[in-house]
Specification:
The protein is mostly helical. It is about 75% helix and about 5% strand. A two-stranded antiparallel sheet has the order 1-2. A hairpin with a 2-residue loop joins β1 and β2. α2 packs antiparallel against α4 and α4 runs antiparallel to α5.
């Protein structure tokens, strides 16, 4: 049963991808917001844009890895899977924290749109299912 929760923890990251494709902040989608932030060439904005990209690509790579592991005929070691999964999770969470700290410090919570809440919900649900599915061995 714990394996099911580990798999669900990866597939709820679809919320992160959907959230990124919706208006995230300032009525701009994720890629539009990142491109706009990069145009300003201010360090805080550049960090926020890189955080957005990290968040999105960590979710996509984690989802692709989950699909490959599920469909693979060759068994991947649990230790290697944990390392890959943990690394991507840390990168994604760091990206989301960096991004929203930069956006909120420059603007406020009113600048956030529903896409940002989908992104945050996806990572939080993933964390919850990771904790539930954690092996105690």
């Amino acid at each position: 049963m714990k394996k099911v929760f580990k798999i669900i923890s990866k597939f709820v990251l679809i919320l992160v991808i959907f959230g990124f494709l919706q208006p995230v902040a300032c009525n701009m989608k994720g890629f539009q917001l990142a491109e706009t932030l990069l145009k300003y060439e201010q360090p805080n904005y550049t960090v926020a844009a890189l955080g957005l990209y990290l968040t999105f690509f960590a979710a996509v790579i984690s989802l692709v890895c989950a699909i490959v592991i599920l469909l693979s005929k060759h068994k991947i070691s649990d230790e290697r899977e944990k390392k890959i999964d943990s690394g991507l999770f840390v990168v994604g969470i760091a990206g989301i924290i960096i991004t929203f700290i930069c956006i909120i410090s420059e603007f406020n919570f009113d600048a956030l749109n529903y896409g940002s809440y989908l992104i945050i919900s996806g990572w939080i649900l993933s964390l919850i299912f990771r904790i539930i599915g954690k092996d105690n061995s």
